[in-house]
Q: What sequence folds into this?
């Protein structure tokens, strides 16, 4: 009997020891384990904020078509942009039919009919667009990436036509069952009647009067190399340091590498041996993975928009988030990344749904300086003459206002500029015209 009691007590002691060891290693349920695998990262505190995917999905601009080749353009964060977009997000789109894009004269429709056009840059996967708009699931449509949405009504027909344009440029999808009336479209188009008038020329829009933007200098901070190492490496203490001839610094744990370009305040992180995520991959899921990765490794410092989803395949994909600045009356505009000064984008490379590359600036904004002023970007004939000279280099595909960043002793200066995208793939910045006030 005594031996039985001893054996039972010994078993209980062993069990208690195992339970205690479990809690020491894995802490309490719901918290992170002390022991981590080689694929885990340490999340860095006090860097950027976390964002949900739907906060990064919005049009780069909304164009209002007023008929007789009269238009106006609303930019993100401006009052009427927010009003139009919020209303459209609540409408239902269903009953999709596909047509070759060349079957319809789209320039004629934009010039003659009353309507709205939402531009989504280089394309947003439908499965992501369904997160912010009431788009019905449809096998015909769901694998697509959408670059723009055109809604219009005609004087001869008491109906609304709704078209989603594929980013491939060859097909367009009509939502034959749209929860919109002719009166809905007219009411929203009326928001643009008293705003700056734009004329469509060669597929892009030119304002007939100067447009206003805010010029400012942002106060800035700088993420440290130690912060980025802690965020991106399983154990920063085992990384090796290599200094390149160009002055850049490389940190590696034998698998991952972090290149810090100190002169440019820019990092390039690569993990070429990253294991593929189990399960099916798609451009939309890859973009969500990119959002999660940024949330965990640096976060977001400011307003961003999903701008580019290139290489739309499960095997290889580039996801780029464009930074914006501004709000209120004048709207928000993109900050242009330059080869001489990298700032304004966060870029990620994915292979089979796993992040293999990550680039971003170490600079972040901590608020506005005291030198804000409103400036005017030229429009009308002055702008046309400058664009005419530029068009001799290549066909102009798109024209839009943006900020040119430059770093000085007082902070990050944002200077308003017109930017032209050319058919040959180049981007040209037009030096600022007009006066500040």
A:
């Amino acid at each position: 009997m005594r031996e039985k009691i001893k054996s039972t007590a010994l078993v209980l002691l062993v069990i208690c020891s195992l339970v205690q060891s479990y809690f020491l290693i894995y802490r309490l349920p719901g918290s992170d384990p002390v022991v981590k695998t080689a694929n885990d990262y340490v999340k860095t505190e006090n860097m950027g904020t976390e964002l949900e995917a739907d906060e990064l999905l919005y049009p780069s601009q909304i164009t209002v078509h007023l008929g007789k080749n009269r238009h106006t353009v609303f930019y993100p964060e401006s009052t009427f942009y927010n009003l139009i977009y919020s209303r459209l997000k609540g409408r239902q789109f269903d009953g999709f039919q596909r047509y070759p894009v060349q079957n319809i004269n789209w320039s004629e429709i934009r010039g003659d009919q009353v309507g709205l056009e939402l531009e989504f840059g280089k394309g947003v996967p439908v499965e992501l667009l369904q997160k912010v708009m009431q788009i019905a699931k449809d096998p015909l449509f769901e694998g697509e990436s959408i670059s723009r949405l055109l809604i219009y009504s005609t004087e001869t027909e008491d109906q609304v036509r709704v078209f989603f344009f594929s980013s491939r440029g060859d097909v367009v999808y009509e939502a034959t069952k749209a929860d919109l009336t002719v009166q809905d479209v007219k009411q929203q188009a009326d928001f643009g009647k008293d705003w700056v008038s734009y004329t469509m020329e060669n597929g892009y829009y030119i304002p007939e009067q100067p447009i206003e933007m805010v010029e400012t200098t942002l106060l800035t901070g700088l993420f440290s190399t130690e912060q980025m190492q802690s965020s991106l490496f399983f154990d920063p203490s085992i990384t090796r340091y290599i200094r390149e001839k160009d002055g850049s610094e490389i940190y590696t744990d034998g698998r991952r590498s972090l290149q810090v370009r100190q002169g440019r305040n820019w990092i390039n992180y690569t993990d070429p041996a990253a294991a593929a995520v189990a399960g099916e991959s798609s451009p939309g899921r890859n973009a969500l993975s990119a959002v999660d990765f940024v949330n965990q490794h640096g976060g977001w410092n400011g307003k961003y928009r999903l701008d580019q989803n290139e290489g739309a395949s499960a095997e290889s994909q580039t996801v780029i988030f464009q930074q914006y600045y501004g709000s209120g009356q004048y709207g928000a505009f993109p900050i242009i990344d330059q080869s001489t000064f990298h700032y304004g984008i966060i870029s990620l490379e994915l292979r089979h749904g796993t992040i293999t590359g990550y680039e971003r600036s170490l600079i972040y904004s901590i608020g506005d300086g005291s030198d804000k002023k409103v400036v005017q970007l030229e429009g009308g004939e002055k702008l046309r003459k400058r664009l005419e000279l530029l068009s001799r280099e290549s066909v102009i595909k798109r024209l839009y206002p943006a900020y040119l960043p430059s770093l000085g002793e007082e902070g990050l200066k944002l200077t308003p500029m017109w930017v032209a995208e050319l058919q040959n793939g180049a981007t040209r910045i037009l030096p600022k015209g007009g006066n500040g006030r």
User: Anything to note?
Assistant: The chain is about 20% helix and 40% strand.
